[in-house]
Design a protein that fits this description.
The chain is built from two helices and nine strands. The chain is mainly beta. Strands 6-5-3-9 form a four-stranded antiparallel beta sheet, with no helix packed on it. Strands 2-1-4 form a three-stranded antiparallel beta sheet, covered by helices on one side. The protein has a two-stranded antiparallel ribbon with strand order 7-8. It starts with a strand and ends in a 12-residue tail after the last strand. About 35% of the residues are buried. The C terminus is likely disordered.
């Protein structure tokens, strides 16, 4: 699949990267329909040191669930989802209090080893396994 990868300040490339896939029973694969550039994408665009590996970009997107792991009950293929700049589990104490940006098990899209929203699809892990809304 195609995705944006930043290699340093001002060096953004659209490249072929591995297709996301389910790895855990709590995973979901989401086909990205729309993505946007966030202000936090602009900071590394202006100042990121050069890198041989590059970093995937994009963490705010709209998508359609393509596949879910066997333990996922909150989402099903065909559901439309909105992803904010972080992914969450929606079951930890912070999430249940509405403080998803402090999720104990979440993280930011595009962090090392994590898919990002400026690509054709993402795999998400860990995913809420109880019904608390269709929010990644």
């Amino acid at each position: 699949m195609r995705a944006t990868v930043m290699y340093g300040a001002g060096d953004v490339r659209v490249e072929n990267v591995p297709d996301p896939k389910l790895r855990e029973a709590t995973d979901a694969v989401v086909r990205v329909l729309r993505s946007c550039i966030c202000g936090s994408d602009l900071w590394p665009y202006g100042s990121m040191p050069a890198s041989q590996e590059g970093s995937r970009m994009g963490h705010e997107f709209l998508g359609v669930v393509e596949d879910v792991g066997s333990e996922v009950s909150a989402l099903k293929p065909g559901d439309v989802v909105v992803a904010p700049f972080v992914w969450v589990d929606n079951i930890c104490d912070f999430c249940t209090e509405g403080l998803q940006t402090s999720c104990r098990h979440g993280g930011q899209w595009g962090a090392p080893g994590v898919d990002a929203g400026q690509g054709e699809a993402v795999a998400h892990r860990p995913l809420n396994v109880s019904r608390r809304g269709a929010r990644l």
